[in-house]
């Protein structure tokens, strides 16, 4: 998956006194577009030395492989030789994987900073805390930490069949998705599994088993992966055509022949494990 970058490691601890070096990586967005370069060495980000902005314009984000990453929160387009703006969705396909992971994690934080410029309680301008990664309101004391949205990815099985879906209103989508959805307030992850499966395909499930989780920075999620089994023999799919364009039971044999995982998403890993007959193995 995208976060599996060992032996490299992404350090997300806040550094309150961090000052960018000339060689520090700079993450700068215009809308969804990331200022970057893609060449024979893969995805590259510009360095601090390429920008005339003062150090105060840069916000520390993370450290990866000994290099610090900073966010330039001014979204005015820059013109740097050899660099262009590319949609952040590039994290799905570009290498090195660790740089793609850093970029999409930076997008997560960039989106949070955009959304916390003003206090949601009193409307005053927010300030960055000096000791931790948190925005606070100098007027009313409101504190806002980076937002993480809990959600579930659900692999519904029925013997040697796996339920696959296709998202609606998403250009280019194919029938390679699992049931997914956000956890609502006052709801456990297990309740989310039951609710989302019923809402999207009209089926009851049983024997829920947690698999593993994945940070998904493109939408600020933490995704909890679950296996479960169809409850009963009626496997008729009642599709929610607002959420989904298609849904079908796909055999393990067919998946072995036709499915090619991307090695990026939790969804892909779970489908691949089912195809290989490894869904009951512990991790």
Describe the protein's architecture and organization.
The chain is 17% helix and 32% strand. Strands 12, 13, 14, 15, 16 and 17 form a six-stranded mixed β-sheet that branches. Strands 1-6-7-2 form a four-stranded mixed β-sheet, with helices on one face. Helix 3 crosses helix 4. The protein is of the alpha+beta class.
- What's the Cα radius of gyration? 21 Å
Low-confidence runs (pLDDT<50, min 5 residues)?
Answer: none
Distance between the termini: 14 Å
For the largest beta-sheet, the strand count, sense and barrel status come to: 6 strands, mixed
Number of helices: 4
Which structural class do you get from the secondary structure elements? alpha+beta
Percent helix among the residues?
10-25%
Strand content: 25-35%
Shape: globular
Number of DSSP strand runs: 17
Residue-averaged pLDDT: 94
- Strand/helix succession: EEEEEEEEHEEEEEEHEEEHH
């Amino acid at each position: 998956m995208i976060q599996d970058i060992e032996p490299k490691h992404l350090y997300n601890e806040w550094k309150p006194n961090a000052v960018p070096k000339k060689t520090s990586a700079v993450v700068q967005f215009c809308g969804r577009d990331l200022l970057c370069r893609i060449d024979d060495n893969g995805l590259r980000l510009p360095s601090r030395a390429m920008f005339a902005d003062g150090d105060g314009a840069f916000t520390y984000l993370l450290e990866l492989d000994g290099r610090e990453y900073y966010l330039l929160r001014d979204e005015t387009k820059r013109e740097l030789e050899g660099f262009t703006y590319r949609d952040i969705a590039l994290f799905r396909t570009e290498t090195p994987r660790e740089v793609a992971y850093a970029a999409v994690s930076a997008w997560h934080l960039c989106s949070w900073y955009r959304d916390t410029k003003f206090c949601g309680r009193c409307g005053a301008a927010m300030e960055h805390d000096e000791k931790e990664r948190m925005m606070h309101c100098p007027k009313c004391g409101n504190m806002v930490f980076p937002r993480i949205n809990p959600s579930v990815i659900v692999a519904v099985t029925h013997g040697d069949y796996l339920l696959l879906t296709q998202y609606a209103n998403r250009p280019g989508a194919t029938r390679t998705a699992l049931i997914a959805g956000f956890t609502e307030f006052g709801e456990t992850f297990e309740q989310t599994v039951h609710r989302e499966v019923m809402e999207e395909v009209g089926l009851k499930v049983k024997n829920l088993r947690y698999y593993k989780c994945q940070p998904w920075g493109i939408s600020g999620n933490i995704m909890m992966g679950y296996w479960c089994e169809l409850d009963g023999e009626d496997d008729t799919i009642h599709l929610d055509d607002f959420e989904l364009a298609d849904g079908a039971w796909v055999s393990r044999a067919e998946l072995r022949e036709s499915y090619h995982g991307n090695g990026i998403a939790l969804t892909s890993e779970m489908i691949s494990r089912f195809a290989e007959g490894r869904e009951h193995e512990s991790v």
